[in-house]
């Protein structure tokens, strides 16, 4: 998805996708220039190399920060990609839930409880991460390709290996 023009103002409840290079960080716009997001306690708002270490954390804190502090020099887009699948919750419900969750320490897991899960649950009431779906699809594809490749090698070894045994037996 192409980055949003920075003069486009997000609305309360919009999902903010921040492009960090090898992954995307997600936050929810809650008004007055602020977002709420989940990140390991040691993570700086602007990400950077320490953000990649977040995959090793098993706990995170729900933080409210200025949008520009979280985005930093990265590009971002407003990405309410699941609006065609789920009904977004009303803005006042998102704000109320954000205030209730703010500052809480929560379990963090890249595969089951990451920043994208948090953001989609706040907007839609459903935790979902397309990054995880894509990673699983790629992993499954690589695994299947590896199994097929091993099967072809095993069949070739059996076929060519048995021919050399037959030649030895005929000698």
List the keywords.
5 helices; 20% strand; alpha+beta; 171 residues
* Termini Cα gap: 66 Å
The fraction of residues assigned to DSSP E strands is 15-25%
The number of helices is 5
Taking strands numbered 1, 2, ... along the chain, how are they ordered across the largest sheet? 5-1-2-3-4-6
Shape summary: globular
Radius of gyration: 23 Å
Mean residue pLDDT: 78
Can you characterise this structure?
The protein has 171 residues and is of the alpha+beta class. 42% of the residues lie in helices and 20% in strands. The chain contains five helices and six strands; from the N terminus they run E-E-E-H-E-H-E-H-E-H-H. The chain has a six-stranded antiparallel beta sheet with strand order 5-1-2-3-4-6. A hairpin with a 4-residue loop joins strand 1 and strand 2. The protein is globular and about 70 Å long. About 7% of the residues have low confidence.
What is the secondary structure topology, with strand pairs?
Layout (H helix, E strand, L loop, with lengths): L14 E5 L4 E8 L2 E6 L9 H4 L6 E8 H5 L3 E4 L12 H11 L3 E3 L7 H10 L5 H41 L1
Antiparallel strand pairs: 1-2, 1-5, 2-3, 3-4, 4-6
What's the quick description here?
The chain is of the alpha+beta class and 171 residues long. The chain has helices spanning 49-52, 67-71, 91-101, 115-124, 130-170, and strands at residues 15-19, 24-31, 34-39, 59-66, 75-78, 105-107. A six-stranded antiparallel beta sheet has the order 5-1-2-3-4-6.
